[in-house]
Amino acid sequence: MDDVKIGEILLPGEEAEQEEQRRRVRKRFWPVLKRAMRQVPFGRDLVASYYCALDPKTPTRVRGILLAALAYFILPFDTVPDFLAFVGFSDDIAVLTTAFAAISGHLKEGHYAAADRALADEGIGDRA
Fold first, then answer.
1. CA-to-CA distance for 24 and 69, rounded, in angstroms?
2. Rounded Cα distance, 45 and 43, in Å
3. Exposure check for the chain: N or C terminus, fewer CB within 10 A?
4. Distances 8 to 4, 13, 34, 65, 72 between C-alpha atoms, Å
């Protein structure tokens, strides 16, 4: 997956598009995460990013980038279908890694604390 394609995926989009992505991410994030935890090497960062994207204190552009990356993560069909063993989440990992690099200063300790609680509550904290 080339940088141009990832750059296109991570465009924050307009407010209406961000709202639609926020709705979609809230609905599908946890089921997809549970399926992906064995294949995604940074589950805690992923969940912290989820909370950062939903945090109204996070700048709009950062929320947009995160929502775009998280929306790509939860899409049932993307560049490399997620159901393919061992490679299915590789494109998602590339997109998420790029998003994390772009917003790294905005992930706060409170986002990680919320991630730790949520992972424990979902029974997947030991895999993150």
1. 12
2. 5
3. N
4. 6, 10, 27, 10, 11
What is the dihedral angle through the alpha carbons of 16, 98, 90, 80, rounded to the nearest 10 degrees? 40
Kindly list the averaged pLDDT for each block of 10 residues, start to end, along the chain of length 128.
Answer: 58 79 89 79 90 95 93 69 52 85 92 94 64
Rounded (10°) angle between helices 90-103 and 60-74 = 170
Structure tokens at 57: 């204190």
Q: Which residues contact 44 (CB under 8 A, 6 or more apart)?
A: 112, 115, 116, 119, 128
Q: Compute φ and ψ for 58, nearest 5 degrees.
A: -75, 135
Query: Exposed, middle or buried, 9 (CB in 10 Å: 0-12/13-18/19+)?
Result: buried
pLDDT at 56: 94
**For tokens 């926020």, what's the residue?**
22
Residue 23's H or E segment, with its range, is helix 15-36
Of 26, 64, 61, 49, residue with least CA distance to 96:
49
